[in-house]
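Dear H.,

Thanks for agreeing to be a second pair of eyes. The structure we're designing against is below in token form, covering all 506 positions.
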């Protein structure tokens, strides 16, 4: 065994982490395991006192400082999780902590640092910007700098995660999946695993828009990214450390790049198995594991993903929920063109068949053709061409929008607008119990003599489905129409007089 591995093994075995950190559980992810055909284990670092593994490295570094060094105070740069680790460690060791955080840091993490007694200084848009400012403060005030990843003591503290995994699961392990930002966690985990059980693969997982480590490995030198994606703020690092680059290049077996949709799907996977909501960085290991299994067709293996953090802003959940089904290949999105004639709308729904509708958006705009945005629940990506062929057989052209960012981010929220063809239109909101095929039953109950000129529905996971419908009804037919909607048995509201309808849709 190489000497530096022995050195790190000794550092990890003697790391001071358990004064403040806990030995986290290694839990089976039963639902995900059944789906993937492998035994998936989650190393639950999200359950640490600061909901992140960062506490380990920060405390191991700071606990080794002399009383004189502690009296000067410490400074660090962080997107949030390392900041909380430093702040809690400083409170335990009774020293001042000055925390420089990017202005893009979630408020949840800022508030957590303040609650632990740290001084928060917001600077820059990324970790690297915050790091430069923290380094200036260190030089100016002679603080002790606590690096979030590029420090042997910090790396050794994070390495205790790997030590616990091997102690908790002594059966054969095929691979351990680790999210990479600056590289501290994967360096420490890989150092321990390769020193003790080198046959276990260590797989690094990076966001496709924040892949400084992988680009550095490919270039055989550290590469600084001009910009980094901020969805996974915990791994938004423009340049990795010198020591972490050296160790990752030598010890890590493979890398996987994931996108935001697949991470959203992984957050949902973790929630379904644990009822915990991970932050994006915390779910990257799961996303990489799923991608690796699909690529290598693995079956029957023990696979470990480190769920390294759960500090997520509540407001971020709206985006996560919206994109999780697409990232998990559970939702297909189509732009379907149908003839603008009575019966086409119902025929489209009949063509969809038993599949659960997740979204339906339509606005009358042309006398000859209608364009409908349709979202459908699917079990796997292979169903998409099958659905396209099914619709084509009914004469409906369908454009696959699964990978179209314009549609997923904007178009699905903008369908509608005024139409010169909506004479005698009345607007209603309906609520009905949300269950499979409920939308089809609702559409089937619509009277064929009244033309649907606007339709919007989005399955939001609530107990009740909410539909907005524009229906063209002449004045003389209004009594019959009123009788019709009253016999439907659905709660409804007449929005025809709503001023918002007049301003934006009529």
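And this is the sequence the design step returned. I haven't edited it by hand at all.
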């Amino acid at each position: 065994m190489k000497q530096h591995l022995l050195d790190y093994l000794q550092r990890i075995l003697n790391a001071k982490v358990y004064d403040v950190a806990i030995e986290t559980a290694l839990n089976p992810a039963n639902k995900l395991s059944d789906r993937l055909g492998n035994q998936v284990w989650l190393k639950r670092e999200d359950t640490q006192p600061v909901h992140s593994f960062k506490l380990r490295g920060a405390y191991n570094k700071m606990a080794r400082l002399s009383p004189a060094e502690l009296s000067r105070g410490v400074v660090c740069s962080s997107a949030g999780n390392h900041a909380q680790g430093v702040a809690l460690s400083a409170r335990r060791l009774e020293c001042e902590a000055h925390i420089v955080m990017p202005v893009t840091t979630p408020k949840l993490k800022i508030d957590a640092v303040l609650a632990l007694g740290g001084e928060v200084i917001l600077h820059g848009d990324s970790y690297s910007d915050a790091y430069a400012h923290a380094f200036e403060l260190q030089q100016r005030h002679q603080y002790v700098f606590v690096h979030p990843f590029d420090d042997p003591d910090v790396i050794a503290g994070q390495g205790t995660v790997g030590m616990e995994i091997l102690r908790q699961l002594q059966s054969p392990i095929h691979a351990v999946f680790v999210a990479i930002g600056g590289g501290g966690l994967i360096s420490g985990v890989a150092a321990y695993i390769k020193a003790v059980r080198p046959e276990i693969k260590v797989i690094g997982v990076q966001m496709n828009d924040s892949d400084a480590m992988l680009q550095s490995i490919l270039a055989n030198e550290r590469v600084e990214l001009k910009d980094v994606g901020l969805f996974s703020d915990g791994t938004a690092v423009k340049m990795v450390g010198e020591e972490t680059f050296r160790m990752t290049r030598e010890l890590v077996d493979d890398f996987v790049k994931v996108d935001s949709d697949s991470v959203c799907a992984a957050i949902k996977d973790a929630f379904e198995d644990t009822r915990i909501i991970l932050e994006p960085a915390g779910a990257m290991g799961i996303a990489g594991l799923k991608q690796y299994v699909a690529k290598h067709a693995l079956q029957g293996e023990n696979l470990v993903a480190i769920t390294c953090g759960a500090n997520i802003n509540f407001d971020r959940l709206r985006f996560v929920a919206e994109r999780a089904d697409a990232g998990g290949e559970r939702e297909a999105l189509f732009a379907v063109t149908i003839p603008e004639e009575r019966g086409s709308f119902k025929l489209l729904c009949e063509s969809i068949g038993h599949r659960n509708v997740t979204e339906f958006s339509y606005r009358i705009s042309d006398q000859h053709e209608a364009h409908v945005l349709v979202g459908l629940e699917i079990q796997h990506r292979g169903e998409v061409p099958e659905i396209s062929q099914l619709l084509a057989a009914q004469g409906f052209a369908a454009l696959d929008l699964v990978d179209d960012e314009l549609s997923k981010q904007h178009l699905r929220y903008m369908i509608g607008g005024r139409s010169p063809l909506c004479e005698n239109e009345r607007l209603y909101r309906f609520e009905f119990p949300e269950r499979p095929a409920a939308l089809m039953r609702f559409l089937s109950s619509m009277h064929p003599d009244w033309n649907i000129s606007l339709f919007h529905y989005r399955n939001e996971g609530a107990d009740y489905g909410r539909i907005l419908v524009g229906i063209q009804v002449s004045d003389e037919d209004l009594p019959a129409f009123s009788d019709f909607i009253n016999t439907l048995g659905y709660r409804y509201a007449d929005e025809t007089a709503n001023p918002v309808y007049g301003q934006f849709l009529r």
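Two observations from my side: Residues 329-504 form a domain with the Biosynthetic Threonine Deaminase; domain 3 fold (CATH 3.40.1020.10). The two ends are 75 Å apart (CA to CA).

Warmly,
E.
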